[in-house]
Amino acid sequence: MNSYFPPLQSNKMDKSDKPEVMDNVKVVVRCRPLNQKERSMGHKQAVSVDENRGTITVNKLETTHEPPKTFTFDTVFGPDSKQLDVYNLTARPIIDSVLEGYNGTIFAYGQTGTGKTFTMEGVRAVPELRGIIPNSFAHVFGHIAKAEGDTRFLVRVSYLEIYNEEVRDLLGKDQMQRLEVKERPDVGVYIKDLSGYVVNNADDMDRIMTMGHKNRKDSHKTFIRVLSIRIHDRTVYTICQTPPPSQNRFLTSRVLTKHPVAFCISIE
């Protein structure tokens, strides 16, 4: 089964609670709190976060003569930020756009130990500690459960890892196989022979994530991991015409299909 990565399209949003147009790229910064080891060693927080202004100030604690530097981002989160707040303010608009038929990408980047895995995955067994990926699962399947009319959804997931320009399918049967990145005029860039699993609920997605985690490589090296969630949205419009009694019923259908995809990417 081949999966492909079509070009990213611009997003649109619900006018009721969001701006009509969302920037194609937003940069969000989350600063984690000091861990127990850092506190025991007497370290101090080197950054100050102003969530209202969207700024982060880096303080040079080791020198007093150098002024602090302030940086502005689309959104910033301080050490006390909650998982659900991070999801609702950053990832939810992207998943909403995917459910409307657009592609979306959530890309986590940072040094080792900065909290990427906690932000993206969190603790799946504890609802308030779930990260962006499991919250996305719940969001997608909650939307599908509320779908009305003749709209049907098929959700397919792929999970891959890139290291030293080698692509490996974390859900594939042969973990020694290296996949090739290809390009076709009709679908764009895709990964040949990348497996895809159909999932019906958030529990299925959780099992897929667990299976992929078991196949991940040494976390001390730098890997790019991509979780691809492709949503096939098929809406069937049916037109019925009542014929004369001597004829059979005439029935025509028109199928409109969208294939948006959400990419959850983490560099570890």
From TrEMBL:
<dbReference type="GO" id="GO:0005874">
    <property type="term" value="C:microtubule"/>
</dbReference>
<keyword id="KW-0067">ATP-binding</keyword>
<keyword id="KW-0206">Cytoskeleton</keyword>
<dbReference type="InterPro" id="IPR036961">
    <property type="entry name" value="Kinesin_motor_dom_sf"/>
</dbReference>
<feature type="binding site">
    <location>
        <begin position="110"/>
        <end position="117"/>
    </location>
    <ligand>
        <name>ATP</name>
    </ligand>
</feature>
<keyword id="KW-0547">Nucleotide-binding</keyword>
<dbReference type="GO" id="GO:0008017">
    <property type="term" value="F:microtubule binding"/>
</dbReference>
<feature type="domain" description="Kinesin motor">
    <location>
        <begin position="24"/>
        <end position="268"/>
    </location>
</feature>
<dbReference type="GO" id="GO:0005524">
    <property type="term" value="F:ATP binding"/>
</dbReference>
<dbReference type="InterPro" id="IPR001752">
    <property type="entry name" value="Kinesin_motor_dom"/>
</dbReference>
<protein>
    <submittedName>
        <fullName>Kinesin family member 3A</fullName>
    </submittedName>
</protein>
<keyword id="KW-0963">Cytoplasm</keyword>
<keyword id="KW-0505">Motor protein</keyword>
<dbReference type="GO" id="GO:0000278">
    <property type="term" value="P:mitotic cell cycle"/>
</dbReference>
<dbReference type="InterPro" id="IPR027417">
    <property type="entry name" value="P-loop_NTPase"/>
</dbReference>
<dbReference type="InterPro" id="IPR027640">
    <property type="entry name" value="Kinesin-like_fam"/>
</dbReference>
<comment type="similarity">
    <text>Belongs to the TRAFAC class myosin-kinesin ATPase superfamily. Kinesin family.</text>
</comment>
<dbReference type="Pfam" id="PF00225">
    <property type="entry name" value="Kinesin"/>
</dbReference>
<dbReference type="GO" id="GO:0007018">
    <property type="term" value="P:microtubule-based movement"/>
</dbReference>
<dbReference type="GO" id="GO:0003777">
    <property type="term" value="F:microtubule motor activity"/>
</dbReference>
